[in-house]
């Protein structure tokens, strides 16, 4: 059983809040590569930003996610990722047509169950690192929901319930699969 668990889905769907809850419960969590890259690029006046150079941004996210995934192998128990390699590779392939997704997903496997946060307009907000609108977030969600099964993952769409209940849902699902 792979202890690296992806939480992906709709931008603004509650992933970061959910990861924080899992972290409070003692699990190792890995912050979304995209948010870390945006912070770094804004601080250094860089251009690998999704609204400036999406291809450069996706390539940096892939590099960061590979390092994150390798580091998680040293951890005991579940490590929860806010997005990860598959999301970044899917974005790059979508943008450029470069057939990278299958190769990278085969070389860097996560737990077979991937948890997706669905579009949830009532909690969606923008911020300095998330500047796109809800419609773009939904389109990305739909692309990811279609992509994960094609590379061998079981998609589990998270219910629109409280953060604590979502964490319980994930942990119960993972324990049932052990």
UniProtKB/TrEMBL annotation:
A Pfam family assignment: AAA_28
InterPro entries: NadR/Ttd14_AAA_dom (IPR038727), P-loop_NTPase (IPR027417)
Protein name stated in the entry: ATPase
Positions of the NadR/Ttd14 AAA domain: 5-166
Source organism superkingdom: Bacteria
